[in-house]
Amino acid sequence: MRTEARVWAHGEQQRLWTENSTCRQAKMFLKGPDLAVSIERRDMHYLVGLKTGHVALNRHLKLVGIKDNSICPLSSEEEETALHFLGQCPALATIWKRILGMHPLTALELGKVKFFNLIRFAHSSGRFITP
Ligand SMILES: [Zn+2]
């Protein structure tokens, strides 16, 4: 049953990907919807959250009233925005240097980082591990 549902969902995604005339930019970068299917749900959550800023980083948590302090807990240098976390935080520099060989990263450079490297970075940071 689960396999049938997966096969059906994959077929529907392929059909919608082909028939839908929207998503021009996504279609420019992705060959099809397979990438979305192969990404774990938790990793997709991180990706969307990091791209939109709606992720469990202190700036967002302060905005939604969960935390009082928006400062980065790793470097204590500035607000923990998605940009700070992903490209600017000196406490995470060694992870990016290991993955991409560079740090810091601008927003423009981060836009070019492959999805799997963003996921790898998010996991390596240990920032989203809940006790
Ligand atoms: Zn920091």
Assign a percent range to the helix content. 55-70%
Q: Profile the largest sheet.
A: none
**What is the N-to-C order of secondary-structure elements (H for helix, E for strand)?**
HHHHHHHHH
User: Mean of residue pLDDT?
Assistant: 85
Task: Give a list of the ligands.
Answer: zinc ion
Tell me the distance between the termini.
Answer: 34 Å
Task: Walk me through what this model shows.
With 131 residues, the protein is mostly helical. It has 2 domains: 1-30; 39-125, no CATH class. Helices cover 58% and strands 0% of the residues. The longest helix has 18 residues, at 2-19. Zinc ion (ZN) binds at residues 72, 74-75, 77, 84, 89, 91.
Helix-strand layout with pairing:
Layout: H1 2-19, H2 24-29, H3 34-38, H4 41-52, H5 58-63, H6 82-88, H7 93-99, H8 107-110, H9 115-125
Bound molecules: zinc ion.
Residues 72, 74-75, 77, 84, 89, 91 line the site of zinc ion.
